[in-house]
Design a protein that fits this description.
The protein folds into two domains: 30-114, 3-Layer(aba) Sandwich (Rossmann fold); 140-273, NAD(P)-binding Rossmann-like Domain (Rossmann fold, 3-Layer(aba) Sandwich), CATH 3.40.50.720. It has helices at 8-28, 44-60, 75-86, 106-112, 124-131, 140-151, 171-178, 199-203, 255-258, 272-294, and strands at residues 4-5, 34-40, 63-69, 93-96, 160-164, 188-192, 208-211, 228-232, 236-239, 247-250, 262-265. It has ten helices and eleven strands. Strands 1-11-8-7-5-6 form a six-stranded parallel sheet. A three-stranded parallel sheet has the order 3-2-4, sandwiched between helices. A two-stranded antiparallel sheet has the order 9-10.
């Protein structure tokens, strides 16, 4: 079966182009959007993500700040940094790069970020608003998935969507978003995970399968319905002696063996990842617009 590749880079370029006009309007009002990223420790993956976010800001002319704390910093030190950014009127978006060191309470840290600056949309107030269908911000990766589907003309209304994974960052929010009323939603949603009985039979029912389980090449061809749309959210390191780095990145889907069964499929890398960054930029612009409106800047 011939398949269509869902290209995240193209989708991200569209989102970025759409933001240019909104950024121009903000700058015309004297507002320069600013994203602040707080990082604790020296996790290599976190450093990569933070650099990517900084480059995306540079491309759009969004001001970016990075506050780096050592791995042995206290939780109170981190909270103090967040308080300072919350109170800075020139900072519009604030996020704390996860994971945090084991001695820190992730929930307490996330809840400390001002919900109006919470561009990751992890604060309980933003999670709740998303769940009831009245979001202020949408979490970047789930929003990127939804936009990929919309921009690839994938119909969801009345179709069965299976989300493989139940994390607070991807699985739960994308399930909540796909079951809402409206464009890019109206699906019948099943959430499957590592303890789902008959997992392969559940995923094989899916018209749209979203793989976010965090295991390399976990989704095999027998788990996918003929003609399904597959979105691969995973980014996993696997050993590769032929690579200069000694490893390469693969998704949660066995892409080479699955792709020919699909109507459309996103690769990993190159699928959801670029969209995640683009949606974070969109949230930052929205946060700046909210801040401007609250000050009566029109």
């Amino acid at each position: 079966m011939s398949y269509r590749l869902i290209n995240g880079k193209e989708g991200a370029a569209q989102v970025t182009a759409e933001l240019e006009g909104r950024l121009g309007e903000l700058r015309g009002k004297g507002v320069n959007p600013c994203l602040a990223v707080v990082m604790v420790g020296d996790d290599p993956a976190s450093h990569v993500y933070v650099r990517m976010k900084g480059k995306a800001c540079d491309r759009l002319g969004i001001r970016s700040l990075t506050r780096a704390l050592p791995a042995d910093a206290s939780e109170e030190e981190l909270l103090s940094v967040l308080d300072g950014l919350n109170g800075d009127p020139d900072v519009h978006g604030v996020l704390c790069q996860l994971p945090l060191p084991p001695h820190m309470d992730e929930r307490r840290v996330v809840e400390r970020i001002d919900s109006l600056k919470d561009v990751d949309a992890f604060h309980p107030l933003n999670v709740g608003r998303m769940l009831i269908g009245d979001p202020l911000f949408l979490p970047a990766t789930p929003a990127g998935i939804q936009q990929l589907l919309l921009r690839s003309d994938v119909a969801l209304e009345g179709r069965e969507a299976v989300v493989l994974g139940r994390s607070n960052i991807v699985g739960k929010p994308i399930a909540a978003m796909l079951m809402q009323k409206g464009a890019g939603a109206d699906a019948t949603v099943t959430v499957a995970h590592s303890r789902t009985a008959g997992l392969a039979q559940v995923t094989a029912r899916a018209d749209v399968l979203i793989a976010a389980i965090g295991k390399p090449r976990f989704v095999t061809a027998d788990m996918v319905k003929e003609g399904a749309v597959v979105i691969d959210v995973g980014t996993n390191r696997v050993d590769d002696p032929s690579s200069e780095k000694g490893y390469r990145l693969v998704g949660d889907v066995d892409f080479e063996n699955v792709k020919h069964k699909t109507e459309a499929i996103s690769p990993s890398p190159g699928g959801v990842g670029p969209m995640t960054i683009a949606m974070l930029m969109q949230n930052t612009v929205k946060a700046a617009e909210i801040a401007a409106a609250s000050k009566g800047i029109s």
